[in-house]
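Anyone up for a design puzzle?
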């Protein structure tokens, strides 16, 4: 068996096109364009690339973007003051603070400082709580993107045994909740998990989000499983690798996401969907 590729690049372009059409429809009804503020602290080179991709995607959808680049030496108080100004700015519907932040800044305090109605990353405890309860809200972008990939590929989740590798607040945990709501039976693995290959071997659906290049071995994966690789790891030669040994795993899986071109572009597309959703929620005529 050779797995079929889940083409995140193509699906993300479809999503971005849909957002663009909905933004154009807003213009026709006399409504303003959604606005996204992106805050980058310091000079992390990966963050620079991620932010650039997000700003480019805004341009493609005619979403207004407001880029704030602040030095790594910025104090937590000054960063919170900037967030407070953005919370009160009526032209801003979404606020994204690119992670990681410098060590002297408490990223939980920064997340808490964002108005939950503008929390387009979906990391605020209010939005995570709503996700936990299965209520509508702004959902974390990467898990939302994975759900969109699965839906658009026509993969049924209901009744599947899903194994999620990683329990971070931004990927693993919200991913588990999304899959649970969609009817999967979930197992969440982490660094303390025993017999991890055995757990993976039981899974109809594997989501790898560990940050360890080529970690998931072909021999662990059940024939016909669906494998979603969230990992983005920069190798010494400058190339990108996922958390899955792609060549070996694709010989056993039925569907697999590549890296790059799988989950990564979907995260950006979900951010744009969230920004539009935040703008619509803030329209004066929204109930
Ligand atoms: P993270 O915060 O470092 O979390 C990694 C998780 O993996 C932790 O829960 C950790 O367990 C677990 N883990 C680490 N080593 C393990 C091992 N040997 N066995 C089992 N579990 C292990 O990372 P993250 O922010 O969730 O990101 C994960 C990966 O996804 C990274 O490669 C990141 O670059 C990528 N990512 C991609 C996107 C995208 O758009 N595609 C978005 C976000 C992140 P403990 O909790 O026990 O420490």
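Challenge accepted. My sequence:
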């Amino acid at each position: 068996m050779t797995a079929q590729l889940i083409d995140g690049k193509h699906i993300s372009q479809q999503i971005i096109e849909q957002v663009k059409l909905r933004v154009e429809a807003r213009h026709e009804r006399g409504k303003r364009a959604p606005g996204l503020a992106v805050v980058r602290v310091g000079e992390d080179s990966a963050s620079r690339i991620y932010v650039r991709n997000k700003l480019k995607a805004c341009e493609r959808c005619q979403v207004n973007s407001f880029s704030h680049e602040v030095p790594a030496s910025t104090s937590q108080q000054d960063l919170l003051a900037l967030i407070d100004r953005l919370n009160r700015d009526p032209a801003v519907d979404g606020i994204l603070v690119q992670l990681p932040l410098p060590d002297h800044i408490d990223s939980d305090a920064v997340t808490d400082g964002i108005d939950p109605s503008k929390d387009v990353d979906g990391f605020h405890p209010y939005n995570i709580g709503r996700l936990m309860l299965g209520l509508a809200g702004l959902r974390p972008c990467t898990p939302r993107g994975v759900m969109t990939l699965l839906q658009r590929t026509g993969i049924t989740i209901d009744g599947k045994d899903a194994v999620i590798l990683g329990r971070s607040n931004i990927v693993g945990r919200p991913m588990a909740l999304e899959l649970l709501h969609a009817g999967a039976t979930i197992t969440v693995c982490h660094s303390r998990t025993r017999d991890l290959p055995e757990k993976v071997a039981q899974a109809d659906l594997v989501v790898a989000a560990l940050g360890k290049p080529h970690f998931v071995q072909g021999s662990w994966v059940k024939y016909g499983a669906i494998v979603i690789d969230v990992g983005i790891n920069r190798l010494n030669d400058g190339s990108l690798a996922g958390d899955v040994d792609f060549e070996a795993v694709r010989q056993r899986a039925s569907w697999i996401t590549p890296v790059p071109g799988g989950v990564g572009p979907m995260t950006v597309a979900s951010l744009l969907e969230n920004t539009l959703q935040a703008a619509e929620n803030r329209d004066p005529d929204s109930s």
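A detail worth pointing out: The chain has ten helices and eleven strands.
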